[in-house]
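Question (not urgent): is this output format expected?
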Amino acid sequence: MSNIPETGRTQRVQIRLIILQVLVFSLLLTLGGRLWYLQIRNGREYTDEARSNHVQQVVQPAVRGSILDARGVPLADNETRLVVSASRTDLLKMDDDGKGVLTRLADVLDMKPKDVFDKVRLCDAKTPQPCWNGSPYQPIPVTDEATTQQALQIRERAEDFPGITAEPTAVRRYASPGKANTAQVLGYLSPVTDEEITKAQKTNSPYLRSDQVGRSGLERTYDKELRGKAGVTRYEVDNLGRVIGQAKNDEAKPGSSVVTSIDARVQAVAEYELNEAMKTARKTFDKNTDQNYKADSGAVVVMEAKTGRVVAMASNPDYDPNAWVGGISGKDYARMTSKKSNYPLLNRAIQGQAAPGSIFKVVSTAASVRAGYPFDGRYNCGSSYSADGQVYKNFESQSHGPITLGQALEVSCDTVFYALGHQQWQKDGGLQPKKNPKDWFFKTAHQFGLGKETGIDLPNEVTGRVPDRQWKKDFWKANKDAWCKQGKQWPKKKDFGTVLAHENCLEGMKLHAYDAINYSIGQGDTLVTPIQMATIYAAISNGGTLYDPTVGKAVISPDGKNVRWIEPHSHGKLPASAKTLKEMEGALAGVATRGTAAWRFGGWPQDKIPMHAKTGTAEVYGKQTTSWFATYTKDYSIVMTISQGGTGSGASGPAVRNIYDAIYGLDDSGKQDLKKALLPTPQKSLPKIQHDGSIDAPTIKPYAPNSQKAPEEQTLAAVLGRRD
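Got this back:
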């Protein structure tokens, strides 16, 4: 018999198989235990580590689009600077974390090594500036002011500077062509905020922490169009921050260009003439305050009458928007926001509010006609007007006898409008108003567009103020506690402030006779902005259409193929018939030919280019008078104002005349030379942008007046000039 089992295996083979099975089961048990340990017991730890191997995005900002004037002259564009940057990813791979490279770089850039080290360190709660608060995977700028020689040294000695790049980079530039600063219109850029970064994280154009965004002016209004689309490079990194691969790469797309209606040549003239007018006013003696006029601020607007497009807009004091490029210094920021510098960041053309004085009388004239007073009726222009025991004098107590409304505009007769405003107040019930008073003077002002924004495409426009019955009530509610507290000191104290507070506490909610009388000539609590008045006078010129003023004219794609026009839009019609507008136009032409502005338009070619004007001198409690000068032709309206500058025709008149002379190419005698005319008709066409983004823009020369009166002559004229 055989001792071999039926399986054919010997006992030794059987033992070996059992041992092998034990080993296999032991290995499987060990492997299962290890898998349990890794996946169950320590699963969360390894899951977290795996998650830390993720994709990091590095954003390449797009080249910002240009802001161009109507003929294609760059007002804001980009200039190329040599930027030296360091890659932290490359530096950290070195044994000394790149300290040697950065030390050599500091020597080439004439910087201290510590300054370079600080530039490339990452910001956190404990790290003070300077430090880098952007992505650690993005090249970190060390300087944007490298010279060509420094850049060449870095690039030629690349083996000594691993991880260091010296590349030309686009940086914002405000060109000031022909010395046209255009600061408040253009605005400026400043660093993006954390909130903006978070909001844009999941968009197709995220921000870098080092990005600059529009904060005011056109830079803010059209920021989305100008900014373009940022490029994104995605890197796969491990939990230690080491790059282990590159994923999808999206190229940056440059921003579009914004073509404006601004003409840089006219802008330069407007800025120059406004500044000169203010300088001259400061040399002029104010006999009411026994000192020279302060002329502390001013603004001028040049607008196309038929479209509402802004050709020039100047505000003084102004600032250099280039100060914001690359980050503004604390000293410059303090200067721009200080009371001492009178807040140059304010665009006084849309944010400056003042009583309009006599340029408001076009509103009162239209209101009077609507209230039933004939334009050609006879109204007494006496030297004074009495009401409720008070005497309201005509300017310099002049008397012209019975005159029409048109003649009242020409000679700027206050007493005619005093009487009309007072009579209408009485018809509406006086201190005890009717249930539904007509309020023609207030309703007409609102319909002229006052008391609300014009809709201009610039941020932070203010509304001005129409002090009607509702405003009086609201203002009283807001101030009655303070008035009543101060008014309790009466009659022990009888100074002006205490007496006024006592009266306002008791009856500040009522519309008084003196409110209506002062309001009729643009005084009292009425406030307007230069852009509002330019819009109104443009509407009188074009037949009654109130346009939303616009500075942007078109948005053009980087390759010039796509053009989006920014069309003019109307926000209403003047509340006056065609007949009334024609009669008012005749009166305003009379202001320029024989009225209060005639001495400023001597020799003007009225038969070829009809001029219409209205002067204004607004009195402000505690301050010197505000100068206003509002004008229009068939092409343009121009409004200038100078705070504490004197009379309208005396302070602002010469400057406005000089702007018109430059636009139409006129000499002092009124002879026209079209070769010298800057813009005899409004610009209609757009500049052509080539496929590569280039523009064949004309060169702008600085404004040089052909002839000007001597400062002494202008000063004397301002003193002896006709009052408004």
